Predict the 3D structure of the following.
Amino acid sequence: MIGVYNYTVVLTYLSLLSASSGIVVSLWGKGHPFIGIFFLLLCGLFDAFDGKVARTKQDRTESEKKFGVQIDSLSDLVAFGVLPACIGASLIKNELFLKKVAPSGAPILIGKLLYGLLFACLILYVLAALIRLAYFNVEEEERQRTESCPRKYFTGVPVTTAALIFPSVMLLQYIFSPADIAVLYFISIVITGFLFVSRIQIPKPGTRGVLVMVGIGTVEVALFILYFFIFKHRVG
């Protein structure tokens, strides 16, 4: 078979499987955005350690290294680009704000324009994630030709931050319950997509920074589980 199947890419493959599961569950039936968020958090956990695990193999060939870079970017596009967009599409099915903004008595055109605008936001978000990942790959390849030291900064916000941003937004559903947070989610989608392709300089987190982010993600998972059992009648 073609491809690489050693332990260096296991976490990347698991992230992709988690993202694919999240996409299916988010869009299943009436939509299950909160379950999709669990899978997004899981993707973030896998991504936090996949690079470190891959670098432990000292005898990787250049072909294996390049494969790892490409498969990681493709996995990130699905996990942190497509999955959040599908969660947004699921929210459109679940939230009541659409009925408030465009009630049944309103002209059909208003409802269609609103839906079109929201789906356009999701599509442009995925495009921004794609551009960010492609730009990073090209920039990193050029940087390695001229520099031998590790990268210190990212240009643009990394797409992996989606694993912390959107779960935080979704938690507001419970903190301010009852509340329809779909509007805030779509605002976050637009802002996050813009930050992906911005020229803002973000320091690359070290081991301590990664552990802090994993800790934040763990707290978010715990809060989701807690609120699920307390307010499970509100979970899609």
User: Anything to note?
Assistant: Helices lie at 10-27, 33-54, 62-94, 97-101, 108-146, 162-175, 182-197, 207-230. The mean pLDDT is 85. Residues 7-234 form a domain with the Four Helix Bundle (Hemerythrin (Met), subunit A) fold (CATH 1.20.120).
